[in-house]
Design goal:
The complex is a heterodimer. Chain A is mostly helical. Chain A has a domain of 345 residues. Chain A has 21 helices and 2 strands. A two-stranded antiparallel sheet of chain A has the order 1-2. The radius of gyration of chain A is 23 Å and the shape is globular. Chain B is mostly helical. Chain B has a domain of 43 residues. Helices cover 57% and strands 0% of the residues of chain B. In chain B, helix 1 packs antiparallel against helix 2. The longest helix of chain B is centred in the C-terminal third of the chain and has 32 residues. The model of chain B has no long low-confidence stretch (mean pLDDT 80). Classes of the chains: A mainly alpha, B mainly alpha. At the A-B interface, helix 5, helix 10, helix 11, helix 13 and helix 14 of A face helix 1 and helix 2 of B.
């Protein structure tokens, strides 16, 4: 796909990579507290981040390298349908404005590190908490794998690695190095490393997008020419288009809504949220986070520019890196690749920390070693975060990329099924724990089977995330259909279980916990140790 | 997503107030606008060559930011009024 190594671009890329590596290790000393050995320190950065750090951390977390590669790639391939990422990220913020501050408060009051901690405390059910934890880990793993796919795409276009004629070790060496660096500083610095690197990442991304959105259209003769070229291509191909066809509008809306509901169910977004130092930091953030959506919208337009620029790739994921390589001078292409590469490291680090926290708190401590000390918890978390990354790496190196993409698609459907327990639980104790568990299982099974049954021109299973909605007849996002099913089962069973007076479980929270803020009695700025409840 | 009151019932003020209705509308408006896809699935009028479908949704990023910010300010005022200005 590429004729030789792009030396200048590679040099710039390596420079930035080294810079963030140094930063990653130095991060351990940044705002360090005394109780270094607690999971709060390593896994939540001491819960001390203010508005700006949280903003960068959340942005670094949600807008991943995969997003930067996949969203324009979807627009490149299908046109308007790929643009659903924009309404999706707009809808996220009003949503989290309503429920995240409550989660922050109750977690601070009770020392919850993960969403499963909250679910266990609220509904007094280890089974339900285990279900939420397992779903979180399952949904996060392929996401980490996709970050590595993002780095691979960039390395590929730069001409290092990925080529078919070298042996596997030489081919994958650059990815292995990037991976080792990531693993090492996450291990030593915890959440502080990605928080600090996120500044560099976002700075680079903003720079690249701003330049790309001005420079490339000028070179291509303006947006009018870009869109007519794209329109002509979709017309010739007989698929896709500049606006969604009436049949595709349900899909567009349900994908946007379902993805918005799912985003803050992911453990890594919760980790970034809980690391903020006060309740207001979160609300203030929902008013400035949409800046990222604007960036994402502009980025999506790059997909059309790739068409107009005549970029032809068999693997759609390479469209944007290839566009940069074709349009930019070598040194700036290097900056752009560094932005994508670092954009993969930040979320991969946060995701592995989040998955490790879930394992440690809700599987290791709840089921294996209930009397674990905070130091032991941190140690287990560090090791698990390493294992999770090795798993993701093995996944990327041994399996076809489409497997990772299929699993990520499934992950989105799965994680949405934890919404009733988590967000429902934040507002009401009415649902019965067994009903929530059954609803979750129903949603998981329906979602998996439905996704399995979707065929595409290239795959006979997991060919997409949309399918006919039973009873409505329109094509919609499977995750959202499964979610509705989940809620219906939960409500019906709750009535039934309450009628039979099934044991409700103990709720260790009280209404005032959900509105507590830093400085209120019982809410400590820094939690000393998280002794079990 | 309606706004659910976060104040414990011992506060004497009513749960539904005009301010809170405005907050709820601010937070709910983006859902109506963006999920109603047929209202904006068209190419004209274009803006500097960008079809309506694209610039309209990007405009909503700014509109929803303004709405969320309004909701935030109103909520703060609401809370200050109830808690005697301690936050």
């Amino acid at each position: 796909m590429n004729d030789g190594v792009n030396g200048v671009a590679l040099g710039v890329f390596i420079f930035f990579f080294l810079a963030v590596t140094v930063l990653g290790f130095l991060a351990a000393r940044w705002r360090r507290a005394d109780n270094e050995q607690s999971l709060d320190e390593w896994g939540l950065g001491g819960r001390s981040f203010g508005t700006w750090v949280t903003w960068f951390l959340l942005g670094g977390d949600l807008y991943t390298a995969y997003t930067f590669v996949a969203v324009p790639a979807a627009v490149y391939a299908a046109g308007a349908a790929g643009f659903f990422a924009v309404p999706y990220t707009i809808l996220v913020y009003p949503l989290i404005f309503t429920f995240l501050p409550r989660l922050w408060s109750v977690s601070h009051k009770h020392g919850y590190v993960t969403t499963s901690d909250f679910v266990r405390g609220r509904f007094g059910s280890k089974g339900l908490s285990l279900a939420v934890a397992v779903t979180g880990i399952l949904a996060t793993m392929p996401y980490i794998a996709l970050q590595l796919v993002g780095i691979q795409a960039v390395l590929d276009v730069m001409g290092v690695g990925g080529s078919a004629n070298s042996n596997w070790f030489v081919k994958d060496l650059p990815l292995l190095i990037a991976f080792a660096v990531l693993a090492a500083y996450t291990y030593s610095s915890g959440l502080r490393a990605p928080a600090l690197i996120a500044f560099v990442k976002d700075g680079l991304i903003y720079l690249v997008i701003t330049v790309a959105i001005i420079y490339i259209p000028i070179k291509l003769g303006g947006f009018h020419d870009i869109f007519s070229a794209a329109g002509a291509k979709f017309k010739a191909a007989g698929a896709g288009g500049l606006v969604p066809a009436p049949a595709g509008q349900w899909t567009y809306a349900t994908l946007a809504l379902g993805s918005a509901l799912a985003l803050f169910m992911y453990p890594h977004s919760i980790t970034a949220t809980l690391s903020s130092k006060s309740r207001n930091v979160i609300r203030r953030n929902t008013t400035i986070l949409p800046l990222y959506s604007l960036m994402l919208g502009l980025l999506a337009l790059l997909g059309f520019m790739a068409i107009a620029a005549g970029v032809k790739v068999t693997n759609g994921q390479l469209a944007i890196p290839q566009l940069f390589e074709n349009m930019f001078p070598d040194w700036f292409a290097g900056v752009a690749f560094a932005a994508i590469g670092i954009g993969a490291l930040v979320p991969a680090a946060i995701m592995s920390i989040a998955a490790a926290n879930l394992f440690t708190r809700n599987i290791y401590k709840d089921f294996i070693k209930p009397d674990a000390t905070p130091a032991q918890e941190t140690k287990v978390s560090k090791i698990v975060s390493l294992l999770v990354k090795v798993g993701a790496l093995a996944f990327v190196l041994t399996m076809d990329k489409t497997v990772a993409i299929n699993f990520q698609l499934l992950g989105g459907i799965w994680i949405l099924q934890t919404f009733p327990s988590l967000v429902g639980g934040l507002f009401t104790r009415w649902p019965h724990r067994w009903a929530l568990l059954t609803g979750w299982a129903t949603g998981m099974i329906y979602g998996t089977l439905a996704a399995y049954g979707v065929a595409s021109p290239t795959q006979s299973h997991f060919g997409g995330s949309s399918k006919e909605i039973p009873g409505i007849g329109e094509i919609g996002y499977i995750g959202l259909t499964a979610f509705v099913l989940n809620v219906v089962v939960t409500v019906v069973l709750t009535f039934a279980l309450k009628a039979f007076k099934a044991p409700e479980g103990v709720d260790e929270t009280s209404p005032a916990d959900y509105t507590a803020d830093a400085g209120d009695p019982g809410v400590k700025e820094e939690l000393p140790v998280i002794a079990g409840h | 997503m309606s706004d659910v009151p976060e104040v414990p019932p011992e506060a004497a003020a009513p749960v539904v107030t005009p301010t809170r209705v405005v907050i709820a509308v601010c937070l709910f408006a983006p859902f109506v606008a963006l999920l109603w896809v047929s209202s904006y699935a068209k190419t004209d009028p274009a803006f500097i060559g960008i079809p309506f479908f694209y610039w309209y949704q990007m405009l909503w990023v700014l509109v929803s930011t303004a709405l969320t910010m309004t909701a935030y300010k109103l909520w703060q005022r609401d809370q200050r009024a109830r808690h005697g200005g301690n936050r």
